[in-house]
Amino acid sequence: MVESKNIVTRFAPSPTGYLHIGGVRTALFAYLYARKNAGIFILRIEDTDKGREVAGSIDHIKESLSWVGIDWDYGPDKPGPFGSCIQSERLPSYKKYAEILIEKGLAYPDPYTEEEVQAFRVKATEEKRPFLYREHRPDTFKKWDGTRPLRLKVPEVKRYTWEDVARGTLSAGEEMLDDIILIKSDGYPTYNFAHIIDDYEMGVTHIMRADEFIASTPKFLSIYDALGFTYPTFVSLPPILRDDRTKKLGKRDGAKDILDYRNEGFLPAAMANFLALIGWNPGTDQEVFSLAELINVFTLEKIQRGGGAFNEEKLLWMNKQHLNKLSPEDLFDYVRNAMPDRIKNLQLFDEAILKRLLPTVIERAHVATDVTKAAEIGEYDFAFVTPESYDSSLLKWKNDQDVGQARPRLETAHKLLAAADFSSSEKVKAALWGYAEEVGKGELLWPLRIALSGKAQSPDPFTIAYIIGKEETLARIKLACDKIGE
């Protein structure tokens, strides 16, 4: 066992597929608590079920956690003083403790075939009682040669009571204890045995995991007792529920690959912030936290007993808050990367124009895919394409008798803007506002909007003029006047 006075936590996923939000939330809580207490956080890979292992999963797990901002002190790429953090590379440790239990008379090779065990189960069902393997425990044990599963001989059949930081005092009766398998016939340990050995050797002080493991805790405690290990601190995390809170969130309800959110343009800080608030409450009205702030305020005592809902609208809102906190440079990079190639290939595309367009883009966007979708349907084309194909009748204001009445107003706007300061949309507005009030706001601003964008639905003409710049603004107004003249 590694001796440490530090808090030591771990996240121990199985490499059986993608990592979804439930797993990341568990890792996040363990990480926050370790960092809050200047402790150690371990990423351990529990790969003893080789039949379910999916190629590439370990790299996926590492990439997922790193994206959210979680780093580890020891992991599959960072062995510790206890050795590897990959269970399949730790088989000698499990065999060592299995031999200790055998020497104590607390473990024995399973003498039965699968058919015999199934017959025991059928009989228990017929007699309407739970099946317990320990009721069929042999009186004498053969020597374990590794070809048969090794089972625990429950050291004491009793009622267990234990403390859980999130759930308080918990207990379970004798019916929860059984002679469970410790090491399978293929030489790999079961989860029930391996995680206890690993936690002990790695010096883990606090175990955070889903509340579904509460029912199995008495079995774990019996193994701790058999080996003479001190119990770690247990923290059962509340489930993540569907938005309607009717059941635990599953794959059919949106528990997708965490990296899908990255691909959609969610910010890692927003995802960490969002997940931290599912089942944990800081005790204040603050909702938006950086990862550093979460580390500073995180406490186990604020973990809730009841499940927290996964609300995608709240996640979108959270991402918007974190977008607003980005530096101008980072926000520009975010939007530029979200723009499809069709925008970057337009005739007037220029990064200077895109920078001026930025507030307009981000005003309606919560995530990068919003930017991409809006760009694909042409919402930002006005900034990068001179509008030429619109019908001149669009320039007619509703109160005018004909479109020709708009021309003198546009010509005056052209003169005013030729002398205007284009350093902001407010200054563009200031150059026109007095004249607009004189002739009528709609009478001027409607044809000006059409002249600058070619569309009835677009940002206001002051914003468009600022975005496209003085030269392009004057050219578009002249083009509109020429259309009316035709």
Write the layout of secondary structure elements.
Elements: E1 8-11, H1 21-36, E2 40-43, H2 57-68, H3 91-103, E3 107-109, H4 114-126, E4 150-152, E5 160-164, E6 168-172, E7 181-183, H5 191-201, E8 206-210, H6 217-227, E9 233-237, E10 240-241, H7 258-264, H8 268-276, H9 291-297, E11 308-309, H10 312-323, H11 328-338, H12 341-344, H13 351-363, H14 368-376, H15 406-418, H16 425-439, H17 441-453, H18 461-468, H19 470-485
If you had to describe this structure to a student in words, what would you say it looks like?
The chain is mainly alpha-helical. Helix content is 44%, strand content 8%. The strands form 5 sheets. A 3-stranded antiparallel beta sheet has the order 3-4-7. It has a two-stranded parallel sheet with strand order 1-2. Helix 1 (21-36) links the parallel strand 1 (8-11) and strand 2. Helix 11 crosses helix 14 (368-376). The termini are far apart. 36% of the residues are buried.
